[in-house]
Amino acid sequence: MASLTKKKSDKPSLLYTAGESFLHRANPLTSLCLLLWMLSAAIVLPTEGTATLTLAAIAVALVTGVGKKALKRLLITMVPIGIALTVVHGLLIDRQDFAALGPVQISASGLDYGLRVFMRVACMLMATLLFVTTTHPADMLKALDQRGVPAGIGYLIASPLLLIEPFTERARGIRDAQRVRGLNLTGSWKARAAALPVLLVPLITLALSDLDHRASVLSGRAFRAKPHRTVINAPPDSTLQIWVRRLLLLLAVLQLGLPLLWRL
Amino acid sequence: MKFDNRTLVLMAAAIVINIVVGQIVAWVKLPLFLDSIGTVLVAILVGPIAAAIVGTLANLLWGLLFDPVAAAFFPVALVIGLTAGVLARYGWFANLWKTIVAGAIICVISTIVSIPIIVYMFGGVTGSGTDFATAYLLAIGQNLIQSVALSNLVQNMGDKIITAVVAFLIAQRLPRNLTSSMPFFAYSRS
C-alpha cells in the first residue's frame, strides 16, 4: 500500500478535472478568451476589483466541480507568495511611513502594495486554474486544429502531451533499476549530485534513440501532405460562443488599451 | 520557417526532456531546475529559432498541465533558446570550456529577462527558496531590483552551466547518422 501511495505521489498530476459543467462543455477557445479577458482585467483593476474577480472565479470553480483542486493549488502557490510579500514590502523595503508594531517596524503603504500584487497574482492564477481544470489539453488541440493551426505546430503541442506519461514511466524505471544497483537518492548532497547523471543520461539517450523511427512514421503517414488537418470529433461550437469570444477579446483589448490612451 | 520531420520529432522530444528532467531533479532534492536541457540541445543541433520554440512551448505546456505560475516565465525560456542558439552559431559549444562560458552567458541574459517579470508581476518574490536570499539582500541595504537580480543570478548560475554542459556532452555523443542531417551542428563540432 505504501509503495502504491508513493507511486501515486510520484506521478505528475494533470490539473484537468473531468466534468459536465458549462465551462467543461464550452468550446476551449471560448474558455481561452475568458482567460485572456480575466488576465487583462487583473492587470488594470485596483485591489478591490481583483479581489472581487478572484472570489467570482472561486465561486465559478466551486459551481463547476473543480473547486477543491483549484483552491488547493491556489493556496499552495499563494501562501508562500503572501508571506514573502508581507516580509519584503511590509518590513524590509525602506519606505517613509514605517511605524512601530511591537518589536518590528512596519509600513502601511508597503503592505498595501504587497496586497495589490498578491490579489493581482491570485486573480491571474485563479483565471488560469479555471481554464486548465475545465479544459482538457487534447480538446484545446482539436479546437486549434479546427481553426487551421499548421500541422507542425499541432504536432509540437500534441506529441509532448502524448509522450510525457511514457517518458515519466521510463524515468521511474531507470530510477528503480539504478536503486537496485545501489544508487542513493537520500544521502548527502554529494551523493545526490552524483546520482543526477546516472538518471539523466539514460533517459535523454532513450528519448533521442528513436528519433529516426518516429520521423519515418510521420513521413510514411504523409504528415504534411495537406496544409490543415481534418478534425473528426471537434469540440462543439455555436454562434453565441463565437460572439462571446469576440466580445471578451474586444473587452480585453479595450481594458488594456484605454488606460494607456488616457495617460497619453 | 519550416522544419523537416526529423527536426520536428527532435523538438517534440526536447520539450518532453525539459518537462521530465525537471521531475527527476525534484527526486534528488537539489536546488536546481535543469528544465532547459532539451532547449539547449536543440539550440546546438538545430539553431536559435527552433530552440526558442521548444523553450516557449515547454514552459506553456508545463503551465497548462501542472503549474500555471510557470507559464508566466515563458519569455525567459524563449530567450534561453535564442541565446543558446546564437552562442552555438558562433562556436561557443565547440568544447567544454567554451560551453561553461556559454552557460554563464545564458544565465546572465535569462536573469535579465526574468527580473521585470519577478519584480513587476510578482512584487519581487516567487514563493520559492530564492525569496530568502532576496529578503537577506534587502535587509543589508540593497534595493529590490538589485536583490532580485543577485539572488536569481547566484541561484541560476550553477543551474545554467550544468544545463549547458549536459546538453553539450549529449550532443557530442550523438551518432553521426542522427546529426548528419543537421547542418547547424557543424558550428559546435569540436
UniProtKB/TrEMBL annotation, chain A:
KW Transmembrane (keyword) present: yes
Bilayer disposition of the protein: Multi-pass membrane protein
Transmembrane segments: 26-45, 51-67, 74-93, 113-132
Keywords from the UniProt entry: Membrane, Transmembrane, Transmembrane helix
Example of a GO cellular component annotation carried by this entry: plasma membrane
Cited CDD domains: EcfT
Major localisation: membrane
InterPro entries, alphabetized: ABC/ECF_trnsptr_transmembrane (IPR003339)
Any Pfam family hit: CbiQ
Subcellular location, record wording: Membrane
Domain of life: Bacteria
Protein family per UniProt: Belongs to the CbiQ family.
Listed PANTHER family: PROTEIN ABCI12, CHLOROPLASTIC (PTHR33514)
Name of the protein described by the UniProt record: Energy-coupling factor transport system permease protein
Organism: Kaistia hirudinis
UniProtKB/TrEMBL annotation, chain B:
Protein name: Energy-coupling factor transport system substrate-specific component
Keywords: Membrane, Transmembrane, Transmembrane helix
Organism ancestry: Bacteria, Pseudomonadati, Pseudomonadota, Alphaproteobacteria, Hyphomicrobiales
This protein's record includes keyword Transmembrane: yes
Signal peptide: none
Transmembrane segments: 6-28, 40-62, 68-88, 100-123, 135-154
Domain of life (superkingdom): Bacteria
Statement: the UniProt record of this protein carries the keyword Repressor: no
